[in-house]
Design a protein that fits this description.
Keywords: ATP-binding, Kinase, Nucleotide-binding, Transferase. This is Guanylate kinase. Its EC number is 2.7.4.8. Belongs to the guanylate kinase family. The protein is of the alpha/beta class. The chain folds into two domains: 141 residues, P-loop containing nucleotide triphosphate hydrolases (Rossmann fold); 60 residues, Guanylate Kinase phosphate binding domain. It is 39% helix and 19% strand. It has eight helices and nine strands. The strands form two sheets. It has a five-stranded parallel β-sheet, sandwiched between helices. Strands 4-3-6-5 form a four-stranded mixed β-sheet. The N and C termini lie far apart (44 Å).
Length: 206
């Protein structure tokens, strides 16, 4: 099995550029990739469509999937469940496409206990200072929300430092360079990955 046939789990802190990289990849290769759509128990927001943003299910339905072992990873946020099913990945693979998943570190810990056997790719900021600047620059979140995302980012970076967690690391210090590397990994090619920023850059987000 070459790498293209294995699911690709993409992770990295909020604000690091994952959505930009994924959107560009899907636009350039619309027939090669499929994005895993998660299940959730929260209500649809205006403009959201069943099967596009999420598979919207009841709490009872979600717990049934969990009990049946149908979910490879799950978590609870703000009293709502979110999870990724094995079937979603299989459906994409049956279309001859590579399945891409955007998963946080806790989900990765759970997936590593399954037989999914994906490639793990971590997108890193060049520094926590740069990440903070990006989050603040969005202008869409309160200072408290930014601090919460930075706190979560520290945990994501700490997990990424553990040996063997990820197959590849790409530092998004330049979006064009990062996309070239990202698309190569997505297409099943091997790359010489980057190193995570030095610890000194990660001790403060100021």
């Amino acid at each position: 099995m070459n790498d293209f046939n294995r699911p690709l789990v993409v992770s990295g802190p909020s604000g690091v550029g994952k959505s930009t990289l994924l959107s560009r990849l899907f636009k350039e290769y619309p027939d090669k990739f499929g994005f895993s759509v998660s299940h959730t128990t929260r209500n649809p927001r205006p403009g959201e469509t069943e099967g596009k943003e999420y598979h919207f299910v009841s709490r009872a339905e979600f717990l049934k999937l969990l009990d049946e072992g149908a979910l490879m990873e799950h978590a609870e946020f703000s009293h709502n469940f979110y999870g990724t099913s094995f079937q979603t990945v299989h459906d994409i693979q049956e279309q001859g496409k590579r399945c891409l998943l955007d998963i946080e570190s806790e989900g990765i810990r759970q997936i590593k206990k399954t037989n999914l056997n994906p490639i793990y790719l971590f997108i890193s900021p060049p520094s926590m200072k740069a990440l903070r600047s990006r989050l603040v620059g969005r202008g869409t979140e309160s200072p408290q929300a930014v601090e919460k995302r930075i706190s979560t980012a520290f945990k994501e970076m700490a997990y990424a430092r553990e040996p063997g967690v990820h197959d590849y690391i790409i530092v998004n210090d330049d979006i064009e360079r990062a996309y070239i590397q990202f698309s190569k990994v997505a297409l099943g090619e091997e790359i010489v990955g980057d190193s995570l920023p030095p610890d000194a850059d990660l001790t403060t987000g100021k």
